[in-house]
Structures are given as C-alpha cells and as structure tokens.
Design goal:
Elements (H helix, E strand, L loop, with lengths): L16 H4 L1 H5 L5 E2 L11 H13 L9 H15 L8 E4 L2 H12 L5 E4 L6 H6 L5 E4 L3 E2 L4 E2 L2 H8 L4 E7 L11 H14 L2 E5 L20 H5 L1 E5 L1 H4 L8 E4 L3 H13 L7 H13 L1 H25 L4 E3 L6 E5 L7 H10 L3 E2 L1 E2 L10 E5 L4 H19 L2
Parallel strand pairs: 1-13, 3-4, 3-7, 7-8, 8-9
Antiparallel strand pairs: 2-10, 5-6, 9-10, 11-12, 12-15, 14-15
Bound molecules: pyridoxal-5'-phosphate (PLP).
The site of pyridoxal-5'-phosphate (PLP) has 13 residues, from α5.
C-alpha cells in the first residue's frame, strides 16, 4: 500500500493538543504548530480498521489484555530490535511519563539522587525531582556538531552513594542521538559498578534514520537486563499518543513485582479496548507503513538541512540519527533566547519548542518537529527565514 504522507489533513477542532491548545500554551491560536512530538499523519490503515471494529461492536466494558497483545510486542521487538522478551516481563501503563513517575516513586525514596542528561525531554526534570528526590545533571558534551556522553562526569555522579537511578533517554530527545552499543555498554558498566538502576525511556526506538541502529539497553546482556526498566510504546512510532498505551519491560523478577504492586495500588492495570486493538494492529501490521514513514521523514530532514544551509546559514542543524525532532543551534544568530522566542511567535507565527525548556544547556537552541506534510514544513521554514533574516540583518 502506498501511503500519502503529503496529504494535509485539517486537525483544527479535533481536541488536538498540537493544534487546538495553541492559545492556551502559546497565547495565540493563529500559529503554525511545529512543537510537541505528535505527527500530522493518520495512523496506518490497519490500525484504523481495527479501531472501527471495536467501535462497531458497541460494548465497551472492562477489558483484558489477550495473549495476542503481548505476542505482538514480543514479535516486534525480536523482528526489529533483535531483543527476545518474555511475556512475564511486560507490564503496561497508559503513558510513558506516568510510568517514569510511578517508577521513581516505587524504586527511590526522598533524598535519593536521580541522574538525567540535559538537554533532555523536559518532563524528566519534574519526574526526577518529585517528592524529595534530588535531580543531578550529567550534561551532554557538544562539540558544535554532535552530542556525546561525558563519561568521566557520569561516573563521578553515579558513584555518589545517594545516587540510585539513571533516567536515560534512548534515542535521545531532543539531541537526536541514537546511542551506539559501545556507548550503552559503557553506561551499563558504570550502572553495574555503582549499583544504579537504569530507567531507559526508549519511546523513540523505532524512529531511526539510515546508517544508525537502536540497541535496546536490556538486550545487551543478562546483567544489564537485570538492572533495567525499559519503556516503549507504539505512540510515537504510529502516532497513537491519544490512545494512551505503553509497555514497561522489566526482566528482573523482583523489580517486576515491585512495579506491579505500585501499579495495582494506583489501580492502573486496567485496559482501554481501543488502545489494545490499536497496539496489536500497529505491531502486527504496521511495518510497511513505518518503512514508508521513515523514508518520508528522511526526505523532510534533507529539505531542512538544505534550507538552513542556503537560507539561514547562521543557524546550524544538529544531525538527528533518530526521532522526528530536529535540534537547531541558533546561538550564532545574535538574538537572545527570549528575543528569538518572541520573534518566532509574534512575527513568524510558528509554535515550536524553545531549547531552554530542555535545561540550561539547551538555551539558544530550538526543537522543530518535522513529522508533517512537506508543504507544512516548507511554510514553517519560510516563516522562520523571513523573520530571522529580517532581524539579524539589522
Ligand atoms: C522521551 C520521551 N518520553 C516520553 C514521552 C511521552 O510519553 P507518553 O505520551 O507516553 O507519556 C515523549 C514524548 O514526546 C518523549 O519524547
């Protein structure tokens, strides 16, 4: 089947956070949204058909998760990520962020330290410093082109006896790194050495560009699997965030039981009948759609690269290895972060994420969502160009 990622679909008045919450989030409803990690593409046809079937049945009582639900994820992980997972390891949670929060509460206590690596997905900050936990930042290194982990600093931070957890983003949002097996092995060995739990948020695991390979942290060795909790979901891959369905994979039996107990306390183990159907259909039948999506995203990325090089050469695109979020260094534009934000909103009328929300190390950067039809991307970039070039040429 050929999918039509070029087709523009009006999302106004659909309760879309990306399109309908602009006034509330940015103070102006009349903006072109290029922010939150949500794609302007319909889900695979197979997913839509599965949802219609559930709707047509018409009874939406309490729902259980069938074996086929687990099997769809087990097969997907083995086929696409060479990770053999057992059914008993798989838990659920409506969203990855609620899961991260629950896990922090279940596995750490007030006074414990949790390491994050900024600039990073902004909810990590509130998750890691909730209820008396202390956030510790192992800031990523940036040489002007590519981000790397500062291993020396990481070891210093993990070796503090108060440090109990590494909240890891893999692939990394917003810097777009797909960590190599070598890098992951180094991180894992440090966690093992210092007895630190690895909480690996791998929600972007399927969105990987050519030439790169995502390695699930827990797939590297039995030892790593034993100290890890991995969060995945079909929500980013297939644009199903509104269905609220994610999987929390915990191979270690004791850790698994602790998670399940915490989820039970919250009565969070129930299922949504639409989410189950979509999850299964996506993992069983969505592969071709994903391949075509990735090709489309690469073309959009090529377009962004060429556009910035030719039209806004003072801003530089940090090459993403995965995700559909592009991190752009605007520090050479000669505008303060606040001024850039004001101009993009008030003049360009474009809503994107300002880098400083991802931590101090993100100041002066912007994060652009390229998962939209090329015509929308082009419109957004033209608006940014007109505004930026007007103000920097002064
Ligand atoms: C790294 C990361 N984790 C989690 C989420 C959100 O997950 P959920 O909607 O399942 O809470 C996002 C969304 O952008 C993300 O980038």
């Amino acid at each position: 089947m050929a999918y039509h990622f070029d087709k523009v679909i009006d999302r106004h008045n659909t309760n879309s956070l990306k399109w309908d919450a602009l006034k509330e989030r940015f103070g102006d409803a009349d903006l072109l949204p290029m922010w939150v990690a949500d794609m302007d593409f319909p889900a695979p046809g197979e997913v839509i058909e599965a949802l219609k079937k559930v709707a047509d049945h018409g009874i939406f009582g309490y729902t259980i998760r069938p074996d086929s639900f687990y099997q769809s994820l087990i097969n997907w992980l083995e086929r696409r990520h060479h990770w053999k997972v057992e059914k008993e390891w798989i838990n659920i949670c409506p969203g990855v962020v609620p899961a991260l929060s629950l896990i922090v509460q279940a596995f750490t206590k007030p006074g414990d330290q949790i390491v994050i690596q900024s600039p990073v997905y902004h909810p990590f900050f509130s998750v890691a410093q909730q209820k008396g936990r202390e956030l510790v930042d192992n800031t990523l290194l940036f040489d002007g082109k590519r981000y790397e982990i500062d291993f020396e600093d990481l070891e210093k931070k993990l070796s503090d006896e108060r440090c109990k957890m590494l909240l890891f983003c893999s692939p990394h949002n917003p810097v777009g790194r797909v960590w190599t097996k070598d890098e992951l092995t180094k991180v894992g060995n440090l966690c093992l050495k210092h007895n630190v739990l690895m909480l690996s948020d791998e929600i972007h695991f399927d969105l990987i560009f050519k030439g790169h390979k995502h390695t699930p942290f827990a797939s590297i060795s039995k030892e790593f699997a034993d100290i890890s909790i991995t969060c995945v979901a079909p929500s980013k891959t297939f644009n199903l965030a509104g269905l609220q369905s994610s999987a929390i994979i915990i191979p270690n039996k004791k850790l698994n039981e602790t998670y399940q107990k915490s989820l039970d306390i919250e009565d969070g183990n129930m299922s949504n009948s639409f989410a189950i159907a979509a999850f299964e259909a996506a993992y069983n039948n969505g592969e071709q759609w994903l391949e075509e999506l990735l090709t489309y995203l690469e073309k959009n990325l090529d377009f962004v690269n060429k556009f910035f090089k030719e039209e806004i050469p003072n801003a530089s695109v940090v090459q993403p290895e995965g995700t559909y979020l592009v991190w752009i260094d605007c520090r050479k534009l000669g505008l303060s972060a606040k001024e850039l934000e004001r101009l993009l909103l008030k003049e360009a009328k474009v809503a994107l994420n300002q880098g400083y929300i991802f931590g101090k190390s993100g100041e002066g950067f912007i994060r652009l969502n390229i998962a939209c039809p090329k015509s929308i991307l082009e419109e957004g970039l033209n608006r940014i160009k007109a505004t930026v070039n007007k103000h920097i040429s002064k």
